[in-house]
Write a sequence for this structure.
């Protein structure tokens, strides 16, 4: 009897979790969403449906990333189309959405005059924690985000990385169902960037869905299960990093001179025949050249999809992974 | 746009976070008053300015201009109420800067995405300004007494003076809070404030209106600061303020009503992009 009871329970449990998987409404849903400022279109008819998990919205400056974040986080109304956040309409149910999301904007919205701890306690109070609970939570988060020793110092004395961490900590005082991050690591050094990535991964593992915007392909590649490429207010591609890279076609043939310097990169369709043909052409141009294969990166995918790079070249100096050759002609 | 491939969805966690309770108007206001008070106390320069500038102004008017304005030497009794009101303007102007800062740094935008009545952040600024200005006013009055100001007011009159000044500070602070919302930067906000600070000079604060050119009489007599000053002056002298008090109170409530209504209109529409 006991065993039968267990099986019934187990079957029920499986059905329950399965049903959950299939009936769960999308975290974010957009249908034909447009938005303009002063007659200038910023978003042009976006369609998007995202379930739980980590999603990256990838696009260059001016693509409309922040505008979309502002719409999804109830800050600005959209002009036309349908928006649903956790199944709720920001136009009429903004209040209910605000109980369930957190936002970390592009510029750390932390109070410089207050200390890190005071920032957290204030926000904790506003989110509905009692004073003692808000203080306890503040200490917990200061510890977790490795700013405990600076908790009593005014934020004005914090470094950029510390401010971002504090900003993220504020967003997590009450763990949200969806966390919006607008360019969370722009302007951070590599070490701070990697530390922040770890924090975001931990969060996702704890059940928070993350929707982040970025102009760093590496960031989208590192964090997101799904990447949406936004360019000029339009969605130009969507899928996993692997899928986007596969859109480029095959591998690149990298041509090096005798000293090992990359002199050219040639896109191929990946077939043996094409590689042989390209190699032959390269060999005919000059003696002593060597070739190697390079797999497509998200950078290539972005260039392929939009016709331009994801971010201005001057940014490339502080990018975490700079193996994509800038300034090199990519022939087709 | 290419068809998105279906990526495996993560197993549904049973730990879907619960919604945050958020805060009501009272809790949020209390939290923001605490914040704005900390800001006031930590911005030592602004706090010093709010107290030192009126003190300097009083000393300049009594010792430098006083002799020329009133050779008999009773100018101190005349000028103190004017100085007190001018000082209220100084202290309130930093409210505009504080509000503009909250707009430009993204603080207010963040609050708007939270389950918080975000307008209460302004309540914090206004209450802190009231406290700051009443403190500065007390210092100025104390200093005036030290250099020979001898008000004839009784306890009741003092109470009325404090209430009237409180109301005036509240009125001017709501105006500055609104200006802070409208300004595009904290610097611009402090610029707007500067214009408002000239109002006391074209009132009966420093010299009687009768001594001004006739074209200025109409403005100087009927602008809001003159009745507030006349009422304060009468109360400090221990005499009944008469109709001035009523006009002053009506002005203050009128200004608060208009500024609050404008703020309530502008606040939800003002979002940094």
């Amino acid at each position: 009897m006991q065993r039968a009871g267990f099986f019934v329970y187990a079957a029920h449990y499986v059905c329950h979790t399965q049903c959950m998987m299939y009936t769960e409404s999308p975290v974010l849903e957009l249908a034909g969403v447009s938005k303009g400022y002063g007659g200038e279109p910023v978003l042009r008819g976006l369609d998007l449906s995202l379930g739980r998990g980590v999603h990256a919205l990838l696009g260059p400056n001016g693509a409309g990333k922040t505008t979309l974040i502002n719409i999804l986080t109830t800050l600005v109304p959209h002009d036309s189309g349908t928006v649903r956040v956790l199944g709720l309409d920001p136009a009429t149910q903004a209040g209910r959405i605000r109980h369930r999301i957190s936002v970390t904007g592009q510029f750390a919205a932390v109070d410089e005059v207050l200390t890190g701890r005071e920032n957290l306690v204030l926000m904790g109070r506003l989110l509905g924690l009692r004073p003692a609970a808000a203080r306890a939570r503040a200490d917990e988060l200061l510890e977790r985000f490795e700013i405990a020793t600076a908790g009593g110092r005014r934020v004005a004395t914090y470094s950029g990385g510390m401010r971002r961490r504090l900003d993220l900590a504020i967003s997590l005082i009450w763990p949200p169902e969806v966390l919006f991050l607008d360019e969370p690591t722009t302007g951070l050094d590599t070490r701070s960037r990697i530390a922040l990535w770890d924090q975001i991964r931990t969060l996702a593992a704890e059940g928070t869905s993350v929707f982040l915007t970025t102009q760093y392909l590496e960031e989208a590649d590192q964090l997101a299960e799904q990447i949406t490429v936004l360019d000029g207010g339009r969605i130009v591609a969507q899928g996993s990093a692997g899928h986007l890279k596969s859109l480029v076609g095959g591998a690149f043939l990298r041509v090096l001179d005798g000293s090992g310097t990359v002199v050219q990169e040639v896109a191929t369709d990946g077939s043996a025949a094409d590689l042989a043909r390209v190699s032959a052409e390269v060999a005919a141009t000059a003696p002593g050249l060597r070739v190697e294969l390079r797999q497509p990166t998200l950078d290539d995918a972005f260039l392929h999809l939009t016709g331009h790079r994801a971010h201005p070249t001057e940014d490339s100096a502080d990018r975490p992974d700079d193996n994509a050759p800038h300034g090199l002609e990519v022939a087709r | 746009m290419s068809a998105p491939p279906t990526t495996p969805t993560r197993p549904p966690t049973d730990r879907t976070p619960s919604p945050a309770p958020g805060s009501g108007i009272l809790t949020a206001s209390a939290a923001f008053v605490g914040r704005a008070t900390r800001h006031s106390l930590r911005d030592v320069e602004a706090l010093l300015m709010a107290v030192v500038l009126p003190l300097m102004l009083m000393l300049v008017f009594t010792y430098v201009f006083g002799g020329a304005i009133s050779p008999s030497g009773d100018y101190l009794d005349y000028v103190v109420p004017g100085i007190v009101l001018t000082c209220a303007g100084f202290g309130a102007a930093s409210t505009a800067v504080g509000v503009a800062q909250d707009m430009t740094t993204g603080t207010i935008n963040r609050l708007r995405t939270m389950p918080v009545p975000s307008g209460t952040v302004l309540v914090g600024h206004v209450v802190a300004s009231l406290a700051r200005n009443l403190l500065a006013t007390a210092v100025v009055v104390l200093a005036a007494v030290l250099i020979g100001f001898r008000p004839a007011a009784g306890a009741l009159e003092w109470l009325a003076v404090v209430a009237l000044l409180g109301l005036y500070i509240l009125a001017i602070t709501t105006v500055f809070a609104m200006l802070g919302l409208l300004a595009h930067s904290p610097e611009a906000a402090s610029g707007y404030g500067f214009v408002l600070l000239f109002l006391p000079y074209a009132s009966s604060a420093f010299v009687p209106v009768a001594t001004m050119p006739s074209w200025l009489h109409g403005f100087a007599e009927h602008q809001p600061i003159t009745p507030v000053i006349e009422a304060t002056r009468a109360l400090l002298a221990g005499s009944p303020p008469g109709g001035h008090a009523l006009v002053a109170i009506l002005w203050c409530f009128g200004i608060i009503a208009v500024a609050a209504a404008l703020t309530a209109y502008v606040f939800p529409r003002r979002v940094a992009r």
